[in-house]
Amino acid sequence: MDLGKKNRTSHRKRKPVKKGIALAVLTLLFAWQMASTYAIQRFPKPEFESGYITPETLLPTPRAEILEVMDVAVLLMALSLVTWAVLKRRSRNLVFWISVFSLAYFGFYREGCVCSIGAIQNVTLALSSGSYIIPWTVLAFFMAPLVFTLAFGRTFCAGVCPFGAFQDLISWRPQKIGPQLNAVLGVIPYIYLALAVLYAATKTDFIICRYDPFVGIFRFDATFGMFLFAGVLLLSGIFIARPYCRFLCPYGVLLNWISRFSRHHMTITPSVCIQCRLCEDSCPYECIEKPVTVKNPDSRQTTLKKFILAILLMPFFMLLGGWTGSQLHESLALVNGKVWMANELLHPEKDASQPETIEMTAFKASGKPASELYAEAAEIIREFYIGGWIVGGFIGLTIGGLLAGRLMTRYRTDFEPNRGTCFSCVRCMDYCPIKS
Amino acid sequence: MKQRMILIASLVLLLAVIGYMVYDLFFSESDRSTNPYDYGLAELRKSDSALIHYNEVQQFSIGLSEVYGIATDPAGRIYVTGADIVEVFSPEGELLSTFPFQDTAYCITISPDGTILLGMEDHLEFMSPQGEIINRWKPVSEKSILTSVATDGTDVFIADAGEKIVYRFNMKGELINRIGEKDSLAGIPGFVIPSPYFDLGLGRDGELWVVNSGRHLFEAFRPDGTLISTWGQPSMEVEGFCGCCNPSHFVILSDGSFVTSEKGIERVKVYLPSGEFSCLVAAPNQFDEGTRGMDLALDPNGRIILLDPWRSQVRIFVHKEDESDGNR
Fold first, then answer.
1. Domain containing A321: what range?
2. Cβ-based contacts of B242 with chain A (< 8 Å)
3. Does A289 reside within a domain?
4. Judging by beta carbons within 10 Å of its beta carbon (0-12, 13-18, 19+), is residue A35 exposed, middle or buried?
5. Is residue A45 part of a domain?
6. Are B229 and B188 in contact (CB under 8 A)?
7. What pLDDT band is residue A271 in, cutting at 50, 70 and 90?
8. What mean pLDDT, rounded, does chain B reach?
9. A292 located within any domain
10. 3-state secondary structure of A403
11. With an 8 Å Cβ cutoff, are B236 and A47 in contact?
């Protein structure tokens, strides 16, 4: 009997039960969130059956510091546990249940905030603005996964990130999309990261939070549009495993870079690879690199040409990207509220048919002179001009690096997880016949 | 082949998500063209025309800039009060008399003997049918804001929105008892009056009906202050009362039904003596938005007399069946 087939069959038989239990837990958490939604006070008052005295509206008290300490402690504990499960126990089951816990705690209980992904913006703002002091918990949530990744690979993605856990749960029929498309779509997180940093640095917006598809579900308070947005993303996630992690997550870019240098990254086999190829198609994220057994497939001259081309490609794309970004800086800056307002004031005829916006009404009521607003907007646009060069250059460098990377081949003898993109989910280990 | 199609569809969905983000970030201005803080009561202001059982048969203007209270006497004359003056109109709306006085009267009622009782901010004044001030009581309390007064000729009941209490006086001005004070043993929850709209009236059996507007409740008391019954349901639907404090005013029909007026969502409704919603007298679209303080009275022919302070008008409503009988 084909050992690989047996392994895959047994693996698939277990999966529905495990996912069924996890989904039941998820449904319960949904119900909990929905129940609390009904407790929200609305205007006009809700319909009480009897002489209930509506209490005075109270502002929520800040989260107790001890609970914040607990959040960080739970994060560190979960990171440690999942790293142990990945590297020592090599147990997919354990990783799976840790991720369910993380989804429950960091997702539904902590309602997706603080999250390491969004913390990128806080860190950026803290670095670019002297007036913003980053809370230590946010910094911890940003740094801890990076430190663990540097040592052990992306174990954070495997079982601690609630977004990843959520997508893992609904990834019922993952299909492969192929390396080319994977690489092209893989550029999007870099663009997203660059824009998120640009908008945070210019104090424009926290776009990662704005387009966070999961927080609205965790809190059950998303607008219809955001529910639809999340629903469509999750629907695609049934067949394309972890679409947010692979093709959107800006934090994943940082983890990808750092993980390449990780000292103790997981391996598919605990010992010597016997080239059985059972793991070849096991990764739903297409992160397994096949062996390249020929050390120098090209002639020396061809290799030199490729190397020179790669060296030239990156600065070329960097300059091209930077120039393009600088040309788009005004369009990019229009997302900023002050720039948008200044633009509206400068072109009052543009939307004469539309009712005045509340921002415009508020600005006019403030008595602030338009010249002051124009000066502020001009300064922001100048920041965007510089930012446009940096963002464009970064995206160009990414594309150039991607192309250069495809020119070069790296010698490897075994099936190996791609250290950058591998989520350390441990699925592939289940397929490896060597268990010790 | 099927798998390939599914994959393509999934990719399209994924690209749609990314496309939405790009569109929303750079091209959409929908967030700015709508006010997310808008109360959005427009839908609630709509009402089913089939529920309106009354027609507005008459309206006439009052020559006063500030009007607060309205009352009728057994002859059907209409009394409107405001700052410094009481105007008396015939049932047809003809101005009969004007009675000047000092101060501002926020509420008015006519005693069975024709005496006009005027509720000032903190005290009561009595005016003869000829318009002479014949008595002036001492202030009730420093915090008083008198919003409604009723009398059966023996007792005078005064609603005080400042103190959130109802006082029962005899005709000599002696306080007999306080009504509606919070008393958990007696099952009296106390009045919740967030704004100075606190109405009262006497029922067919001499019971005192008071609007506990913050609780959206009608409460009936015996003159000694014993709570008899309550009705009312907070609801955004037409059957109930909504907002901070409604209804603002009411009057009791001869069959014991209640006519109520509300602010916020301006409307006038009729409830059966049991408290069950009966019909609409006037829908929100019949009033200017923001209208409040619509005091009510009833004339001997059962016509509902409504004071519209926003338009400075007296508006008269008649049941559609009565109108067809020629009762105008």
1. 300-348+361-407
2. 44-45
3. no
4. exposed
5. no
6. no
7. confident
8. 91
9. no
10. helix
11. yes
Which residues of chain A neighbour B194 with C-beta distances below 8 Å?
Answer: none
Do residue A244 and residue A158 come from a single domain?
yes
Q: Distance between CA A368 and CA A96 in Å, rounded?
A: 56
Residue A177 sits in the same domain as residue A229:
yes
A393 close to B (CB below 8 A): no
- Of A124, A165, A81, A77, nearest to A254 by C-alpha is A124
Chain segment A155-203, per-residue pLDDT in tens: 999 999 999 999 999 998 899 998 889 999 999 999 999 999 999 999 9
Identify whether the C-beta of residue B17 lies closer than 8 Å to the C-beta of residue A247. Answer: no
Q: Look at residue A144 in the predicted model and tell me its pLDDT.
A: 97
Same domain, A312 and A220: no
Q: Is residue A198 part of a domain?
A: yes
**CA–CA min distance A362, chain B (Å):** 12
Buried-exposed string B254-266: b where 16+ CB fall within 10 A, e elsewhere: eeebbbbbbbbbb
My answer on whether A308 and A331 are in the same domain is yes
Looking at the DSSP bridge assignments, the partners of residue B97 are B88
Task: Calculate the alpha carbon distances from A370 to A203, A353, A377 in Å.
Answer: 20, 22, 10
Six-digit token pair at B307?
A: 């004071």
Its pTM surpasses 0.80: no
Q: Does the beta carbon of A188 lie under 8 angstroms from any beta carbon of chain B? A: yes
Which single residue is written with the structure tokens 């740094």?
Answer: A143
Residues of B with a Cβ under 8 Å from any A Cβ are 3, 6-7, 9-11, 13-14, 16-18, 20-21, 24-26, 32-33, 35, 37, 39, 189, 192, 215, 217, 230, 233-236, 240, 242-244, 264
Q: Provide the number of structural domains found in chain A.
A: 2
- My answer on whether A400 and A425 are in the same domain is no
